Amino acid sequence: MNATTSHAAHVSWLTTRVSGMLDVDPTELDADLPLAELGLSSLQAVELAGDLEDRLGRAVDPTVVYDHPTIAALADFAVST
């Protein structure tokens, strides 16, 4: 992804990725709810961090999902760094 990827694009990608991990319809996910409340496990959180690292093309600490615990917060992280 390039540096100009929008917040909305990151939210969309994260929503799709998390819905696939949790096997739920993307429309059932609220971007402002903590991922742990949505049912994301610690193993899935580390996997999501790796996927985000691939998407951004740079190193992302595996704890990013705990530091930014919602889809919206992760999207904020993605556009701000």
TrEMBL record:
Keyword Heme: no
A GO CC term attached to the entry: cytoplasm
UniProt keywords, alphabetically: Phosphopantetheine, Phosphoprotein
One biological process term in Gene Ontology: fatty acid biosynthetic process
Annotated Carrier domain residues: 5-81
Matches recorded under InterPro entries: ACP-like_sf, PKS_NRPS_Biosynth_Enz, PKS_PP-bd, PP-bd_ACP, Ppantetheine_attach_site
UniProt cross-references to Pfam families, sorted A to Z: PP-binding
Cross-referenced Gene3D superfamilies: ACP-like
An example molecular function term from Gene Ontology annotations: phosphopantetheine binding
PANTHER family: FATTY ACID SYNTHASE (PTHR43775), SI:DKEY-61P9.11 (PTHR43775:SF37)
Official protein name in the record: Carrier domain-containing protein
Biological source species: Pseudarthrobacter enclensis
